[in-house]
Amino acid sequence: MIQHLLSASDLDATAATLILDTATEMAAMADRDVKKLPTLRGRTVVNLFYEDSTRTRISFEAAAKRLSADVINFSAKGSSVSKGESLKDTALTLQAMGADAVVIRHPASGAPHRLATWIAGSVLNAGDGTHEHPTQALLDAYTLRSRLGEIAGRHVVIVGDVLHSRVARSNVVLLDTLGAKVTLVAPPTLVPVGAGAWPADVSFDLDRVLPDADAVMMLRVQKERMGEAYFPSAREYSRRYGLDGPRMRRLPGHAIVMHPGPMNRGMEITPEVADSARSTIVEQVANGVAVRMAVLYHLLGSVK
């Protein structure tokens, strides 16, 4: 197994499937009275978050603790980072403390790759800028497999702010690796330059692709990353690219609706859809713990 998980491209189909299979076993622990395994006892996992996070940080913390690891939560706010300490100096501090793994979220694309050159332990990318978020792609794949039975041959439609979405980038790579067909749907202004070279089709017409979709993944419109107008108005965006009740009913009967969260309810997705039986949004959060347990298990469990 690999030492670091920096990108979805670090995983081939065999490694990704192994993680998903292990996550299934980890999820079964949730029904036990004792939910902990001794696998990572004595190891230290550091959550190094330079950006605000709720789901991902708590999910990684819960995953590490259920594997009996010691967890240190490091927030840039209130630390020496706020005094100007560099990422490298922070990395050397963590190295000196004996961190076995560092889970990092950082606003700069590529920061986890740099961190991996400075410390001896494993580095897990929990989101770097607009680049990637590989464990989110893994938990999305796990959710797809749980609901649909298999991923190979399925058609997954990813809709919305692809330009600023690290979730979209990782999902395109991993889903292609696992044999799914992916279609990106977005306004032309929110399709990244070079997306035509990705292993995915690109469409600007949501209504056209819905009847053929096995799953629709709605992306949050990341207003905080937008320094200018990428579409005329929120109402116009919702009218053309939002998933509402009528559009949901155009999906095949077995199709599911996904969202990595947090949601802009009423913009990219309506409450009717978000709270429907097709929605896997709450499941995705729960599945995140099992998947991240599986990742930590394989990256650290065999390290002596």
UniProtKB/TrEMBL annotation:
Keywords of this entry: Pyrimidine biosynthesis, Transferase
GO biological process: 'de novo' pyrimidine nucleobase biosynthetic process; 'de novo' UMP biosynthetic process; amino acid metabolic process
Positions of carbamoyl phosphate binding: R55, T56, R105, H133, Q136, G261, P262
UniProt cross-references to InterPro entries, sorted A to Z: Asp/Orn_carbamoyltranf_P-bd, Asp/Orn_carbamoylTrfase, Asp/Orn_carbamoylTrfase_sf, Asp_carbamoyltransf, Asp_carbamoyltransf_Asp/Orn-bd
Residues that bind L-aspartate: K83, R166, R220
Pfam families linked to this entry: OTCace, OTCace_N
CC per GO annotation: cytosol
Enzyme class, UniProt record, top EC level: transferase
Family indicated by similarity: Belongs to the aspartate/ornithine carbamoyltransferase superfamily. ATCase family.
Binding partners and assembly: Heterododecamer (2C3:3R2) of six catalytic PyrB chains organized as two trimers (C3), and six regulatory PyrI chains organized as three dimers (R2).
Protein name in the entry: Aspartate carbamoyltransferase
Species assigned in the record: Virgisporangium ochraceum
Gene: pyrB
